[in-house]
Amino acid sequence: MSTKKNIPQEIEKNTQSKQNPMVFGSLNYLLLGGSLVVLVIGFALMSGTTDIYNSTKITIAPIVVMLGFALGIVSIFYKGKSNSGE
Question: Which of the four pLDDT bands, split at 50, 70 and 90, describes residue 86?
Answer without folding.
Answer: very low
